[in-house]
Amino acid sequence: MAFDFAWLLWALPLAFGLGWAASRIDLRHWRLESRAVPRAYFRGLSHLLNEQQDQAIDALIEAARHEPDAAELHFALGGLFRRRGDYDRAVRVHQHLLARADLSSAERERAQHALALDFLKAGLLDRAEAAFEALLGTRYDAEARLALLGIHERARDWARAAEMAQALEGGPHGSFRLRLAHHRCEQALALQRQGRTGDALALLEALVQQIPASARAWVTLAEVRQSLGQTEGALAALHGLRQHCPSHLPLVAHALAQGALLTGQAADAQAALRAWAATYGPALDVTQALAVLESDAAAARAHYIDHLRQEPSLVAATLWLAGAPLGAGDDDRLLRRALERACEPLKRYRCAACGFESRQYFWQCPGCQGWDTYPPRRVEEL
């Protein structure tokens, strides 16, 4: 049977028409998808600006479905999950990014840094440590070392913390010498608890020579010397603090007065405290120390009057009243008790970073974990 070529005259135009129609449909679908992605992306951005994190996440997930290869969308999603506290999803997003073979080295380092932050925020310190160590030697080296320093401090691994502080010294984050001194002091206290007081003493004596601006180094040295019965050595350390860190003298004023009384150096201590007060103004702890050094009760109370002349202070007034003889009735006793109760909050120390208050002075704030954030003066004096 002969083939009828007339059918080709009909088939070719028909095939061309069907192909053209299919291409138009695909083109229209591609255009719709390309328009849908920016709309979802910008909708997510709008929600972010309005601080609507849940709606922003939904919009960005929709955008990521249309563009599964868009790394920026995944970084944005991971960051949002972390900010919301959804650390598991943040970790999965950043681990998915790291598993991709098409990431550039810069994007891979960025994903590794984001993953390390996820672990740190989630409190998984061992995983965070490993993730940050993988960033050493990259463009995130300084940030990784700073994070590792914080991790070692939280783990109370003071030897590794000291090594990291030394590595960070002179970098973009400023000086870490005082922070290193805190680490060395913690190591010395640990040695003292282990019964190795001699090693602790040697470490602290070297520390005050290396970092004389560290107030804690002088204070800890004085405490260790005093624990060994070296009262004169402890007093010498307190005078070293007065010379190198004069702003912290109120913290040790009482200990300085007691040491001076024990060693017969009351006059020298009194002269030193008076000179400090003349330079830096009245301080409650210094005023109390001066009162302790007086052998006469009237002379001791006169120091509180001098303090009140220079600076009004409810605490100083209460201390002055405490030295006055009680009256015949209970009125004086009730009045003093009420004043002492009112003074208690004024005797605390307050963190300048987070506002955490405590009756005890802390070198590292229990609230915000910041070092040297407590001013060495009481709340009333701030």
Automatic annotation (TrEMBL):
Top-level division of the source organism's lineage: Bacteria
Name the GO terms of the biological process aspect: lipopolysaccharide metabolic process; regulation of lipid biosynthetic process
Role: Modulates cellular lipopolysaccharide (LPS) levels by regulating LpxC, which is involved in lipid A biosynthesis. May act by modulating the proteolytic activity of FtsH towards LpxC. May also coordinate assembly of proteins involved in LPS synthesis at the plasma membrane.
Note the coiled coil stretches, chain numbering. Answer: none
- The record lists Fe cation as bound by C351, C354, C365, C368
Q: Name one Pfam family in it.
A: Zn_ribbon_LapB
Name under which the protein is recorded: Lipopolysaccharide assembly protein B
Q: What is its main location?
A: membrane
What keywords does the record list, in alphabetical order?
A: Cell inner membrane, Cell membrane, Iron, Membrane, Metal-binding, Repeat, TPR repeat, Transmembrane, Transmembrane helix
The protein's matches in InterPro entries, at most eight in alphabetical order, are given as:
LapB, Rubredoxin_2, TPR-like_helical_dom_sf, TPR_rpt
Query: What's a single GO MF annotation on this record?
Result: iron ion binding
Q: How does it sit in the membrane?
A: Single-pass membrane protein
GO cellular component term, pick one = cytoplasmic side of plasma membrane
Compartments where located: Cell inner membrane
Report the family membership. Answer: Belongs to the LapB family.
Q: Which residues lie on this side of the membrane: Cytoplasmic?
A: 24-382
Q: Which residues form the LapB rubredoxin metal binding domain?
A: 349-373
Q: Name the SMART domains on file.
A: TPR (SM00028)
